[in-house]
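Please check both lines for our workbook:

___
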Amino acid sequence: MKNRDNIYKAFLNAIDEDLRGICEVNKTTERPLPCPYCGEKDVERLAKALVSVLEEHSPDIPWLVPEQYRADVHEARELLTAATLALLPLYFPPRDSCMDSIATVMSMFEHGRNAGFKSAGALLFEEVATGMKYSARKHAYVPSSFVRHIDGKKPCDRLHRDGSRGFTADEDDAVMFYKRYLKVQRRVFDMNRRFNFELCVKRPFEALSDERHTFYCKEEKMEIDLATKVKKLQDRYTLNLAQAKGYDLLDKLMINALLAYLRDETATVAARESYLSQTERLIDGSVKFPHTTSPKEGVDVDRIA
């Protein structure tokens, strides 16, 4: 709770006075965000400020977000945050326009291995864009019950010439921001289908969540844990090189190859994890001090990192 309060305070300090005033209008919840809806421009400003604060508070784990995707991930975070900041006051009660709800919506996004996969987060926004929602009870799509608060219009009542329903990007800001997010997502997906784009986008928002185990799915937890372990191994290897410099050429080639594989997001998490222990043994057990402190002069001593 204290951590979230500190983040919210940093967020308020990062935004202009007019935006702080808009947030304070919503008296129905803790750590409030604007409600009623404040408009496209203000939402963009709020989204940029919130993402900046969260990225500073929870920096990206090296190798979880490869260099070539960092700009896309940052842009996607801002767009998905803006879409959520628009969605909440437009379609949900005022008490839901708060920091905690941002984390809830972000947690609903998951990565799929094919273009047809739709997470709960995607379905939430598509309910506005299509006017339809999936009913698990009926095993079919049914008209959405969403009502836009600013004008009382329903996405399901918006009928287009081709027979489809829902609001377009020109008619609804939540849809507009979400469609822009999808363009970034598609661009990255086309380059690398295995890269867990959604995990990288939502990871900083974990700081706004009550429980880590409810924020991530099992595969996402494995991905983050693996990235954290690889970072520690890389740091340990770098330290050993600086202090001992006792790896022979074959050791270095093997370790560098294994570290590169562990960072390769095109391989599955399970496949990469199977090489963790081997990499750790090489890093911890292969280093020999150039000058031994052993009473037996000339005997190599294994370095324990």
